[in-house]
Amino acid sequence: MPLVVVCIAVSVTIVDRAVSAQQTPPATPRTPRSSAPVDLTGNWVSVVTEEWLWRMTTPRKGDYTSIPLSDEGRRVADLWDPSTDGSCKAYGAGGLMRIPTRLRIAWRGDDTLNVETDAGQQTRTLRFDRAPATGARSLQGHSLAEWEAIGGPPVLRNGRAIGAAPPQGGALKVVTTNLTEGWLRKNGVAYSESASLLEYWDRVAFPNGDVWLIVTSVLSDPRYLVNDYTTSMHFKREADGSKWRPTPCRA
Amino acid sequence: MEAHTVSRVTRTLLAAAVALLSAASLNAPSFAQGQAQATPPTMVDLAGSWTMSNEEELLIRIDPGPELGNFTGFPINAAGRQKALSWNSTIQAIPEHQARPHPAQYSMRGPGPNFHMGEIIDPVSRRLIGYTITGLFENANRTIWLDGRPHPSEFAEHLWNGFSTGVWENGMLKVTTTHMKQAFLQRNGIPSSPYAVMTEYFIRHGNLLMMMSQVDDPIYLEEPMVRTQTWRWNPNQREQPIGQVEIAEELPDLKPGDVPHYPLGTRHPEYADANGLPFEATLGGRDTLYPEYVDRLREMMRATDKKGSR
């Protein structure tokens, strides 16, 4: 009999805990910051292992290797004046992440991520509030951000939607519009005001302890490009901001 | 009779206790989470045909390929640099090197590749136990095992595609590849040793597939080499036939035992000269990969009387 009593007591306790847990008042609404599936904040540095020639130096006038320029885009690129090297136009959202730079990423409030660069001293504002673009166009444009489960949205195979697994992990999806004309490279290869930028921001960790931020970027520009311009940039996490060295661009 | 009654009551109460415990386990997620509960990892469907959609380094990843002496962007050490400077493209004409596939350390980089990712399904459990990647250069197709099998002994044979296992990590497929052959990281002789280990992340965003690779090579690199590639899902893509290569004698004057190479101490300044760069800057190395090198490069270019803007 004592065994039976113990069993019942334990069971009642467990059920009581379960019911209590389910009756807990709903938590306060989750903000983009509190619901972040991945932590992108901190200090990061570009590691230029790809397109070194075109990123570490100012390419020669007319060198638009690998960029799917339209005739109009080529015409504009050929107008570049080398004396404008260092212009802030090379630091617009469409080209900024390809500049060798350090990044400082931090939350501003609960629904905005700030991305600062020391090269060119730019700040990108990634907003989760879904507010439409208002006001004048700008170099960094209007960036709407949202968390997206890796793999999602549901993908198609043979024309049919594949059943989505429960989301796990996640990435940051950013769509940027309302841009002024800027440069994809320091030699004036340009994107137009009609451009829009889609980005996915991922974070991964490797066995040697290195943590990386990857920004996959798809730039669409019906005026200066014949195809989407797809690139991916990687930034290694740094312990602190001791190597942060702000360098302005030329207005 | 009384004993029988007690026994019946005991059984009834025990049954009630078991029922309560069962109910509790079904209805107490917060409690269950405190226990060692195995949550199956989220698997993202990577199967299908993928077309390279990354515009970076197009002329390097396709033909004509990288220039001799262009080691920019690679964290090679002195040994790697020495081996790369002695590499002579004529070596590809000797019979032993003709029709060589690309190694796993490079094959996801180019040309293309436009590949198909296929599922390996266990015939009994119907579980996904692996992926194949087919369509790689000269059939150096890869298999990524997802069933938890160990990597072979360190004495096992090294292959062009190495030996790859994968695990799911927050919706990303993390792949570890060992047992790769001594080969190259770039098609201009930048070497990769058989001791290299490659880690890759395959990350799917809708119809985009991004892959980041890190090659850790204690012999030829100062720090691991990382690269990223992007593909777009393309259900209409069909694999190209495997290139048919006939081994032929292309170097009739080569003496038996000779290996085409440049002697130690050779410099290849052509790439630097053609692009207005200091020769030193083209030799690669860890320090050349970071933003602070931009200023140093500018100073070197001024010192050598080359224009800061090429």
Secondary structure tally, helices of chain A = 4
Oligomerization category of the chains in this entry: heterodimer
Provide mean pLDDT of chain B, rounded: 87
Regions of chain A with pLDDT < 50 over 5+ consecutive residues? none
Outline the biggest β-sheet of chain B.
9 strands, mixed, barrel
How helical, in percent, are the residues of chain A? 10-25%
End-to-end CA span of chain A: 87 Å
Characterization of this structure:
Chain A is α+β, with helices and mostly antiparallel strands and 251 residues long. Chain A contains four helices and 15 strands. A nine-stranded mixed β-barrel of chain A has the order 1-2-3-5-6-9-12-13-14. A two-stranded parallel ribbon of chain A has the order 4-15. The relative contact order of chain A is 0.19. Chain B contains seven helices and eleven strands. In chain B, strands 1-2-3-4-5-6-9-10-11 form a nine-stranded mixed β-barrel. A two-stranded antiparallel ribbon of chain B has the order 7-8. The interface between A and B is large, with 81 and 78 residues.
Properties at a glance:
heterodimer; A: 251 residues; two-stranded parallel sheet; 15 strands; B: 310 residues; 22% strand; globular
Quick recap of the structure?
Helices cover 15% and strands 31% of the residues of chain A. Chain A is of the alpha+beta class and 251 residues long. Chain B has 7 helices and 11 strands.
